[in-house]
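Record filed below.
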Amino acid sequence: MVICPNCGKNTPEGKFCEHCGSLLTSRQAPILSSDQPVTPQHPSEKKRSAGQTVLMAIGGVFLVFIIIIIIAAFVFGMGGNTINGGSTCSPGYSVFSTSDGHCCLTGYPYYYDGQCHQCSQGYYKYNMSAGYCCPEGYPYYYDGQCHQCSQGYSEYATSAGYCCPVGYPFYYEGKCHQCSQGYNTYSTSAGQCCPVGYPYYYNGQCWNRQ
């Protein structure tokens, strides 16, 4: 028996196939015994084209590049919060240039006296400082700077360290006055401070009578 090269069936040896009538060439398939199984032939898998191989290579390189970027972003992102010894800060805490290598809460970048502060040493945030750090003793912030007294008040050399309204520079008897002790302004003193008992002001001085 031989295998017909045209229909693939077993046929007796001869010139023509008894099934399809095709000419049996001199290049015949190997003779098989009737009891030998015939293994069907399968078409070979198509080989990947060169273009597919290049695309897969480019995709692999791109994926590796993305992974490297993610790792670098994580490492350098944590690097800003690294403290001495290589450990990092807890969420919400950072190492600032003014925190002496310590992890401080966000908004408290200054480290001294064993803890973190909002302002540098000698400065504080007061209820009246509009969120600004002002020097100790200057708790009021307006007009672009810190002041000892609230707006409209000032500390004078004659106010004994108290903030007095503008025009009332003298402090005694528990309050601010326009004139020094023993002097007053009268309706007849033209706005001048005259001694008690001398309520009249004219000719450049105070008088006790007109």
Remarks:
- DSSP finds one helix and 18 strands in the chain.
- The first helix runs from residue 50 to 79.
- Residues 1-34 form one domain.
- The CA atoms of residues 43 and 158 lie 111 Å apart.
